[in-house]
Amino acid sequence: MTSFSLVPLQMFSMMGMLISVFSGLFFVFLVVRRLIIGPEAEGLFTLFALMFFLIGIALFGIGLLGEYIGRVYQQVRHRPRYLIEAVLEKQAPGKPNHGNKAPAPAAATSLFADGEE
C-alpha cells in the first residue's frame, strides 16, 4: 500500500532534519569542549560534524523534492482515496432513512468511491 502514501518520503525529510539537528548539537558540543579542554585532534571531529550536517541537509532536500513529485503524481493519476469493496446493507425502497445511516447507492456500477475509473 505504499503506492498510496507519501509517508516514506516524509520519513526521509524527517531523518534529514534530525541528522542536521544532531550534528549541529554535536558541533556546539565540540566547540564548548575545545574551549574547556583545549585542542586534541586536528579538527577531525569538527569535520565529521560538518559532514553529517551537510548529509542531513541533502537528505532533507531529497525527501522534500520526492514529496513534491509524489503529490504531483497523485494529482495526475486521479486515483481515489479508498475503494468500496461491497455494500453490506441495502435500504428497502419504501423504508424511511433514520438520519444516522447514509442512503445506500441504487446501483453500484463502479468499485471506485468517486465513480471515476
Give the topology.
Blueprint: H1 7-36, H2 44-77
Helix pairs in contact: 1-2
Question: Any key phrases for this structure?
Answer:
about 55% helix, mainly alpha, single chain, 2 helices, about 120 residues
- Helix/strand/pairing class, anyone? mainly alpha
Q: Which blocks of ≥5 consecutive residues have pLDDT under 50?
A: none
% residues in beta strands: under 5%
State the share of residues found in helices, binned by percent.
40-55%
Q: Biggest β-sheet, characterized?
A: none
Shape: elongated
Spatial extent as radius of gyration: 27 Å
Terminal-residue CA separation: 19 Å
Number of helical runs? 2
Number of strands: 0
The H/E string reads HH
User: Mean pLDDT, as a whole number?
Assistant: 77
